[in-house]
Amino acid sequence: VSSTFDFAANLFPLSSTTGAGGYAPIGAPTSGARPRGVLGGGSLEKHKTLTYLNGLSLIIGLIIGSGVFSSPSQISSKVGSPGAAIVVWIVAGILAWTGAASYAELGGAIPLNGGAQVYLAKTFGELAGFLFTWTAVLVLKPGSAAIIAIIMGEYFVRAVIGAEAEYVNPWINKSVALAGIFSVTLFNCVSTRMGTRINDMLMFLKFVALLFVAVVGIVVAVTGYTFKGEKDVAWKAKDWFNDTSTDLSNWAVALYGGLWAYDGWDNTNYVVGEFRNPSRDLPRVIHSAMPLVIVSYVLANVAYFLVLPVEDVNSSNTVAVMFGSKVFGPVGSIILALMVSASCLGALTSSTFTAGRLVYVAGKEGYIPGLFGKIGINNQDPSMSTQRTRNWAFRKLDQLLGDGEMGLFFTPIYALVLNGVITAGYCIVGEFPTLVTFYGVAGYTFYFCTVLGVIILRVKEPQLERPYQTWITTPIIFCCVSLFLLSRAVFARPIQTLAVVAFVIAGIPVYFWRVHGRDKLRKAGGGDAHTPWWRFWKK
Ligand code: ARG
Asked: Nearest residue CA, atom 9 of ligand 1?
């Protein structure tokens, strides 16, 4: 806690509110006044608040987005048969799991906020970490969030105006998407607890949705009747492995589709620094989240195939809605569309929560203006604190959420707003096919390098303390498969790959501008991470 902070807290001790029923944070020191987020300053990592459940909902919340509800066709139409599609879902899940297990080792050994940034910096030097942050802050995080937001908008509008509507003005979808981005940014700004609680709730909802699909599918298959009373014979005629494709490139494309649905497995790693017990909980989170997701994905897909004819699954990009209408009629399609929309909203909050932390770390490191590395509303006027405490509504909300010593607005507000603005920008421009390719190539390049770091660090720094160690085959498998996928992408989409390379290289001069300048200044005895860059040029 910065000195301005203590000063303010001493001037205005909030003794009447500390320690009162349920108000004090669990496990946090209760003595003394609470640092108030509303004053600005402070550091997130000093307040370890995240629990196992929060971690679980951050990772599952982002992984289960729209993919399992909308893109099964991308997989089954490529590999040709339901059985083969299920195999791809399992393989993609295990592959994501090997990546996540490797990240668990890194997160345990280097328990800091920032995810791949800190692991890459440790393995390959700060430039590598910077280039990841550069790409993730500007494209990967906001780009993928924009895609999720748009899909949320589409499903929501579909639920409201009916699935059969022929043409919907894309700006209607986009307005809903923008409203979603705005509200999740706001919630995450108000309080860390608010963000995590919404995550926790939406995670349960997602499981309910997937289990619902699975159970309904099995019931329909066993009884042979849909809930509309229609006789359903599709599943009995199905030969699960008929027409399986033997072309390897088809399988590779299908695997890509599956990997998007499982993507987001690195999400908890961005906030390891805020875990109460990172070395114990991070591996636990990952090794419970991944099997849970794999099982529920496989069950949902089995249910689709039990109820819908293969041709329908292969040709639809809203499989879940089709499933709902087949089983329950129009009401079913509305319910399912709302569920998918809520699921996307959950993915958006999870993503925003961690994106805020990523931008915040970049601000603290001096990669971007130091303002973005600040916590809370940067109001240095201590009187703000009393004003706020006297405000009945704020105090009630504070008590309700129970952020404990951190209080409301103890969040990386500026970082969250920056992320929200960039996300909204992508949402408005909306070049999705390009964005998806960019995401795949750039994202997997960094995954590959980071996981390679697990192997390199084992050789280079065998004495590094690793509370959790994965099997050495785990990172090796992940590296081999992602290299294979990347090499295919390079040949299939050479132009886009070049664009990714150009973008990453463009980060190098920025690195020297920001970081070199910062370090030179530090050596000369002036400035720190937050010193504006122009001070360096004036010297
Ligand atoms: N798996 C999610 C889905 O099915 C998408 C995750 C996007 N990835 C990310 N890192 N934001 O929709």
From this structure: 264
The residue behind tokens 């709730």 is: 201
Determine the distance from the C-alpha atom of residue 352 to the mean position of all C-alpha atoms in its chain, rounded to a whole number: 7
CA of 437 to the centre of ligand 1 (A): 14
Per-residue exposure over 122-155, b if at least 16 CB sit within 10 Å of its own CB, e if not: bbbebbbbbbbbbbbbebbbbbbbbbbbbbbbbb
- Per-residue tokens: 283: 């591996």
pTM for this predicted structure? 0.83
Count CB neighbours of 484 within 10 A. 13
Contacts by 162-168 with C-beta closer than 8 Å and gap 24+? 162/330, 162/334, 163/318, 163/321, 163/325, 163/330, 163/333, 163/334, 163/337
Mutation to probe ligand 1, out of 58, 60, 62, 268 (largest number of atoms < 8 A from CB) = 62
489 by DSSP, 3-state: which? helix
pLDDT the model gives residue 386 = 43
State the ipTM, two decimals. 0.96
Q: Residue 438 C-alpha to ligand 1 middle, in angstroms?
A: 14
- CA distances for 530 relative to 317, 362, 426, 536, angstroms: 47, 11, 28, 12
Amino acid occupying residue 459: V
Ligand 1 atom with minimal separation from the 63 CA: 1
Q: Note the pLDDT of residue 19.
A: 28
Residue 1 in this model has a pLDDT that exceeds 50: no
Candidates 70, 140, 141, 148: which one to mutate for ligand 1, based on the most atoms within 8 Å of Cβ? 148
Q: How far is the CA of 344 from the centre of ligand 1 (A)?
A: 9
